[in-house]
Amino acid sequence: MPIQNLQGQGPIGDYYILTEQNRIKDAALPEYDPLADLYDLEYVHDHDVPFWLTLAERKRGPIVEWGAGTGRLAVPLAEAGFDVTGVELSERMIERGCKKSEAVEWVQGDMRSARLRKRYALAICAFNSFLCLLSAEDAMDFLRNAREHLETGGMLGIEVSAFSPEELVDPPSDPEPQHDLTRELQDGRLERFSISRYDAASQLLAMRLFYELGGTSGAPGEQRAHDLTIRITGRDELVPMLRLAGFEVEVVYGGFEGEPFTADSDHLIVLARNGQVVS
Ligand SMILES: C[S@@+](CC[C@H](N)C(=O)[O-])C[C@H]1O[C@@H](n2cnc3c(N)ncnc32)[C@H](O)[C@@H]1O
Questions:
Q1: Closest by alpha carbon to 41, among 159, 205, 191?
Q2: pLDDT value at position 24?
Q3: Closest residue CA from atom 23 of ligand 1
Q4: Taking a C-beta distance cutoff of 8 angstroms, is the pair 119, 63 a contact?
Q5: Do 169 and 261 sit in the same domain of this protein?
């Protein structure tokens, strides 16, 4: 399918850039571009796919995934026969997605402002794409835009990680990197370490990710570092935001089996309906 590029149409260049002190909203910075070649090596899980497939079967209509990455969810949904549009900021992530499958219609754009040509029965914003919105204002811009793209009765599903208080700390000035993951690859191994800093005032969790890609030959591996920032959002912020954006909140889950959301939940999933009549 062709990729639509919304760059140049309206406020699409209105992204965040990282400064010494904080982030300002004035320039395009698709943070995932330099991470695109590692994304599918790092994130190999698919335990969330059945949840979204079940919802897609229930809604029976076109689906949009906002912040679709390399199509980890969009591709299996499209290959199951659903009409799926993936909206993604990073061109490199889209390139990866296109290589995996031609079944997804890709749109390169910003989920806060992208204007698509149709309305959807189901919108998905999963695996922390919502947390990439770095202020409450940006989150509201996205929620309003997402609602404008839904049919009457259409559903928005948002899934984010639920962080424990222990994970949201500002460590001492010279912290040791923590080991996040090891992936055995066909021709080597990927290791990821990270240092995270949390600013409770802004709710921003700034992560410096260190990657080591080692070959099997024993030759020294490649080392890379990338910065990623997310804005932590909990249930009692997300639910009122959805209502403020005009949604009716249908249900809150704490996991992909429909578990109740508790203090021990690893995930926060909120399903909300666009109850307004679409003119
Ligand atoms: C953690 S990844 C999740 C990708 C995918 N949803 C998945 O489940 O694998 C977050 C994605 O959101 C994208 N993203 C961040 N901010 C965005 C924005 N304002 N508009 C569109 N995509 C955005 C990033 O480029 C990245 O690919």
A1: 191
A2: 37
A3: 67
A4: no
A5: no
Structural domains in the chain (count): 2
Cα of 48 from ligand 1 centre, angstroms: 16
Residues 54 and 170 occupy one common structural domain = no
Q: Does residue 32's CB lie within 6 angstroms of at least one atom of ligand 1?
A: yes
- What stretches in the chain show pLDDT beneath 70? 1-29, 216-220, 278-279
128 alpha carbon – ligand 1 mean position (Å): 7
Q: How many CB atoms lie within 10 A of CB 214?
A: 17
- The CATH number of whichever domain residue 54 belongs to comes to 3.40.50.150
Residue 279 belongs to some domain of the structure:
no
Confidence at residue 172, expressed as pLDDT on a 0 to 100 scale: 79
226/90 same-domain check: no
Q: Is the CB of 72 under 6 A from ligand 1?
A: yes
Q: Give pLDDT tens digits for 67-93.
A: 999 999 999 999 999 999 999 999 999
With a 6 Å cutoff on the Cβ, whether 231 touches ligand 1 is no
Q: How far is CA 47 from CA 67, 184, 272, in A?
A: 18, 19, 22
Q: From atom 12 of ligand 1, which residue's Cα is the shortest distance away?
A: 67
- pLDDT at position 18 is 35
Answer yes or no: do 8 and 63 share one domain.
yes
Pair (73, 177) in one structural domain = no
**Neighbouring residues of 229: CB distance < 8 A, sequence distance ≥ 6:** 18, 23, 31, 134, 204, 205, 206, 207
pTM score, two decimals? 0.90
What is the domain-level CATH number for residue 208? 2.20.25
Structural domain range at position 150:
4-162+234-274
Same domain, 48 and 84: yes
User: Which residue's CA lies nearest to atom 8 of ligand 1?
Assistant: 127
Residue-wise pLDDT tens digits, 179-216: 999 999 988 899 999 999 999 999 999 999 999 998 76
- Name which of 139, 86, 128, 83 is nearest 109 in CA terms: 86
